[in-house]
Amino acid sequence: MTGHSSSTLHTPSIALRVSAPHLRPQAHAIAQRWGLPLAGDAEADAPEFFLLLSDEHLALCQKGDDAPGPVFVDFVAGTVAHRRKFGGGKGQPIAKAAGFGKGKAPTIIDATAGLGRDAFLFASLGSEVRLIERSPVVAALLEDGLRRALTDPETAAIAQRMHLLAGDAASLLMALPEAERPDVIYLDPMFPPRQKSALVKKEMRLFHSVIGEDADADALLPLALQSARERVVVKRPDYAPWLAGRKPTLAFATKKNRFDVYVIKAL
Ligand SMILES: C[S@@+](CC[C@H](N)C(=O)[O-])C[C@H]1O[C@@H](n2cnc3c(N)ncnc32)[C@H](O)[C@@H]1O
Fold this sequence. Notes:
The protein has helices at residues 24-34, 78-86, 93-97, 117-124, 136-150, 156-159, 169-174, 202-211, 220-227, and strands spanning 15-18, 49-53, 58-62, 108-110, 129-133, 162-166, 184-187, 231-237, 250-253, 257-263. By secondary structure, it is α/β, with parallel strands linked by helices.
């Protein structure tokens, strides 16, 4: 794992709080590692958005009674676990797009890791996955989720195949040595939601307020096409145009999303 990027392009300063005093040393280490400020314990003193470390997890929270969230990474239970067990395995559109077939699982770089759900799915299907995330707040959440997944017998083997690289994907891909090129590069940059209303999932709203939009995402496609050996897969909402306006070789649709596939070499 590398140190975090100096770029906090999209991340307002998010302070870290603890739910109980015995967690202060651990919070101190997390704050230092990710360059995050520490806040006082009283909720009243907390800024609007903050990270809260409890005995259970590290979570992104927003102040206020009707605030969305909290957002934390959970690979062991909840929707991610459900998707692993009942999501359709290699037959689901995201897996077909990434080229999972009967043969060996592809090696993957997920260059926009976010909360790591898609990366976890790839790893659960057998891939070694490198996860690149540039927001220190999101990377801290991801690292916390991976740490917990490593201690659970149901997810430990999967989490061992997931390797977090904190930093900007554009720079990391440009510096990628030949021997470390993956079979597949996966991109899922933020895209503005169609409705700004309560219909947008609460969790997504909180995430959007903190991370913002990945307005520079178009630039990742040519870099990914140079760095992947076999294909680049781009996840888009069904109403979004092609990334960088570039027509894919093929696409797999789900109810709300599209996986645009740019084939470099047949698997
Ligand atoms: C929509 S989220 C990805 C969600 C993810 N696919 C999942 O399953 O949880 C996009 C993430 O990519 C990150 N990101 C966008 N551009 C990036 C870049 N150039 N380098 C590293 N991370 C980037 C954002 O900070 C954000 O956390």
